[in-house]
Design goal:
The structure is a homodimer. By secondary structure, chain A is an alpha+beta fold. The first copy, chain A, is about 35% helix and about 20% strand. Chain A contains 16 helices and 16 strands. In chain A, the strands form 3 sheets. Chain A has an 8-stranded mixed beta sheet with strand order 6-10-11-16-15-14-13-12, with helices on both faces. In chain A, strands 1-2-3-5-4 form a 5-stranded mixed β-barrel. The two termini of chain A are about 35 Å apart. At the A-B interface, helix 1, strand 1, helix 4, strand 6 and strand 7 of A face helix 1, strand 1, helix 4, strand 6 and strand 7 of B. Strand 8 of chain A pairs antiparallel with strand 8 (about 200) of chain B, so a sheet runs across the interface. Chains A, B: This is asparagine--tRNA ligase.
Chain lengths: ~550, ~550
């Protein structure tokens, strides 16, 4: 084979040369400098948003978008340069070269491209193209998740999402936090509750066994019996030869035969244990010792507990990664896979935690206003008139801070508005209550703190009143809860009692308790649901539209 | 309950007040300004690396580390301030306040902290502490993954890892790339091969069914028969009443009874189908329609195919996230869960791809030299003398570029060195070949391009010679292959043929083919194994030491 290949090599000329690199200019950079770039020669690539022939087919205008910004570049192509009909269909890709020109007075473009060379074209059969010119609803676009990034809305969301992720890393780096990659596959359950996805290789393991058994069925009992008899016979032969003082050569040969027979029996024994299906122990439970990690493993619901191990060593850390819930939720606010930002700070109490959350959220809002203005204007124009106002308000207004007890008191005194869920001290505040606090009562972000311990997780620090824990939620207009955090229980004995109170076993948390056994520190942290932040920023209504590839019950396209 | 809680509320004073925030100063910022800060009052928190009483127990020196840098702050505490024995044990946490002073002449510290208040202490029982003063090996530290971040080495790795992640986001943002979160749970298989982890809720589904059946066994056939007879009887009663022209009231009541009986039968029918174990179809295959996504789902092995959908709309994108391999590898170079950086660029050929990879790798090296100098010096001193040299070389030397055919030629002509695997045109280069090229022949990074199509994936662009594809690998000293990339096949017909040639079905790739059907563009991308990059930078030998929570066969701690 290798020789054949070498011969073939000699026969053809193998590619050693490389095409020269493309020096493409992004539309964003062209439009940012506007008319000042007139006269410059550029190569531009993108997809045609709309194209129209004009001047009786003597030239065409293309609105070209390359995803670098929401705006299109107007491109003018002469019929002499390229057959126009092949360029004007929506969705067509082109790589073109030409000169930037100031367009005629009175047009809205600040600059346009006069093409003199069409370098590449990727055509589109408009009848088959899944994105028709008539606008699809966001809901319909979810069925063409592989093409929807070509729409203005999903493109704008992608740029806003990028800027929010980037601003997150900048904020934490500027403040001395280290980014820690907490595990996706975990054998811990953060909340002691919550539906988790299981990660396994047992199905492929079972498939392999089943395939093997099909090709080569398990031995029957009589197969094994026959093989055992053979062993006995070979053994007898050896014994007889020894008694008969046979030659060394003869005995060695017989012993070798006995060995082969014995090996065959043990192989049959082994194979007789192979069973189709998921391996089970004698008591009927799944034999996870056959799984990849030799135990049950799950997809993480939060990196918090793990990131605490880094905070209790490196002081200020954060994790930003995917988290998972196997809940059968079909709402516009839930995903099976979503991204979370979770900072964790040593030597920090609840007040420090709130300060950090407030500064972080404000930083994000300000960042978007400064770095994503056009996309925000697009969202404001098409989806939520108040989107920019909201960012401005949140970025510039100190957050109100009230205790849970105070919040309940305020909500109980509300007149002229009936909540679906009655407000009583001890309830978990519902979205309607949270939004009323931030949107109606305070008209700005509100941090509610010191929640009843019964409705919060075991790791939150018990307050001196013995009834509340040092938890806090940041509530913002439009989405309600955006951030949830707490000071963590750093006292070993209290933490143990809280784990047991929650009905959980201590053993799986021994490593977590070790952080309190050895050099424990007060520490605090919070989680921000990244998609919630994007909903808050964009004003979009459905979380499935702000993540590139949404996963929810029954759907995991691509 | 709510009332009881309200009463209790009245009885205790609930916490409305918050502790004042801690204004802690990081050791990094203190040491960065050194002696210039003498005279300043600060609060510092950290963990004691070593502590020793001096002056016959009248004071103690603590070497304090807070993870912000590899260096410790020297802290001096008087016996009058705090019982010294409680502070000096390795691993003890302290939050202390005091004044920064210039230490006596001749000591190596540039500044030290004279403590006048000890605010918090987290003690350690040194006999029980899993990190003894005598250094544990990196291998032993893997058994205390929750505490190992307190060691100098793992702390330095965490800071280097952070800087590499941060530099990655900076590089791509500066170059107009958008960060796209590709899915973790996927129903596509990127390579058409590779062992994948399955994601499922079928085990918890089976557990629920089994529990339910235990509490309430499935109906027997005679139960169902009896219930069916009851339906017949109730039906007869209705019929008879109708014949007898009974009152509307009587008939309605009988119909209602019949309805109840029918519902009972259908409930029994339903329950009789409940079977313990994983649900199976009639043909014995697993009934994935009962799984969360109503089909088989897996953990991603690469975000490339999905991120291409964004590149073919937004031009320059990248993904940076966890990827998974369920391979039974116990080597020092493989993990079941690891992070990958995967840029994807539209309107870009293989040359553009190489340019991007070279600039990115150089940017990372330069970034570390500028932002992680002390940690790099620590690694050079303790693990790999050449680590800093290597970064300097790679950041400042243009990468050699040679075709695969040329590389094979060079390796075949090597004398005085025998490779374990014989070099022939057509083989997949092994690590020994890759390292020889970069370490011995060129003594700098090498990009090998245009590989035989047989050893590369279907999506790589077929060259005109019909024998090679436009693939490229970046090889660097110490680790060999650091980056693998290619120009993608943008021609619909060629791509289809390549999929079929690879023995794969077309149907699962229809969405991927759509990118070529509608406005196709030349595009290219690559993947950088993030942990490989850290191994390359630090000179460490085992990949399990450069990820916070390593996952490999049989191990998924925490």
């Amino acid at each position: 084979m290798a020789d054949a290949a070498t011969d073939a090599m000699a026969a053809v000329s193998l590619s050693d040369d490389l095409e020269p690199a493309t020096s493409r200019t992004s539309i964003r950079s062209i439009l940012a400098n506007g008319a000042a770039r007139a006269g410059e020669r550029v190569v531009v690539g993108g997809w045609v948003k709309t194209g129209r022939e004009q001047g009786k087919g003597s030239f065409a205008f293309l609105e070209l978008n390359d995803g670098s910004c929401v705006a299109n570049l107007q491109v003018l192509v002469d019929a002499a340069v390229h057959p126009l009909a092949r360029l004007t269909t929506t969705g067509t890709s082109v790589l073109v070269e030409g000169e930037l020109k100031k367009p005629p007075e009175g047009t809205k473009q600040c600059v346009e491209l006069r093409v003199d060379r069409v370098l590449e074209v990727g055509e589109v059969d408009s009848a088959a193209y899944p994105l028709p010119k008539t606008k699809l609803t966001l809901e319909n676009l979810r069925d063409v998740v592989h093409l929807r990034s070509r729409t203005n809305t999903i493109g704008a969301v992608a740029r806003i999402r990028h800027q929010l992720a980037y601003a997150t890393h900048r904020f934490f780096d500027e403040n001395g936090f280290l980014y820690v990659h907490t595990p996706i596959i975990t054998t811990s359950d953060c909340e002691g509750a919550g539906e988790m996805f299981q990660v396994t290789t047992l199905f492929s393991h079972a498939e392999k066994v089943e395939k093997e058994l099909k090709e080569n069925p398990a031995p029957s009992e009589s197969d094994i019996e026959a093989a055992s008899i053979a062993v006995k016979e070979k053994g007898d032969v050896v014994a007889q030869l020894k008694v008969a003082k046979a030659s060394k050569h003869e005995i060695t040969a017989a012993v070798a035969q006995l060995k082969v027979a014995k090996e065959y029996v043990s192989k049959l024994d082994e194979r007789s244990k192979l069973k189709p299906g998921i391996p089970r122990r004698d008591d009927g439970t799944v034999a996870y010792e056959n799984d990849f990690f030799k135990r049950q493993a799950f997809l993480t619901v939060s990196g918090q507990l793990q990131v605490e191990t880094y905070a209790c060593a490196l002081s200020s850390v954060y994790t930003f990664g995917p988290t998972f819930r196997a809940e059968n939720s079909h709402t516009s606010r839930h995903l099976a896979e979503f991204w979370m930002v979770e900072p964790e700070i040593a030597f920090a109490n609840l007040q420090d935690d709130m300060n950090c959350a407030e500064r972080y959220v404000q930083y994000l809002c300000k960042w978007l206003l400064e770095h994503c203005r056009e996309d925000m204007e697009f969202m404001a124009k098409n989806y939520d008139k108040t989107a920019i106002e909201r960012l401005t308000l949140v970025s510039s207004t100190p957050f109100e801070r009230i205790s849970y007890t105070k919040a309940v008191e305020l909500l109980k005194n509300v007149t002229g508005k009936k909540f679906e869920k009655k407000v009583e001290w001890g309830i978990d505040l519902a979205s309607e209550h949270e939004r009323y606090l931030t949107e109606v009562i305070f008209k700005k972000p509100v941090i509610v703190y010191n929640y009843p311990k019964e409705i919060k997780a075991f790791y939150m620090r018990l307050n001196d009143d013995q009834m509340t824990v040092a938890a806090m939620d940041v509530l913002v207009p439009k989405v309600g809860e955006l951030v949830g955090g707490s000071q963590r229980e750093e006292r070993l004995d209290v933490l143990k009692a809280r784990i047991l109170d929650a009905g959980l076993p201590l053993e799986p948390y021994e490593w977590y308790l070790d952080l309190r056994r050895f050099g424990t520190v007060k520490h605090s942290g919070f989680g921000l649901g990244f998609e919630r932040m994007i909903l808050f920023a964009t004003g979009l209504e459905n979380i499935r539209d702000v993540i590139p590839f949404p996963r929810y019950p029954g759907r995991a396209d691509l």
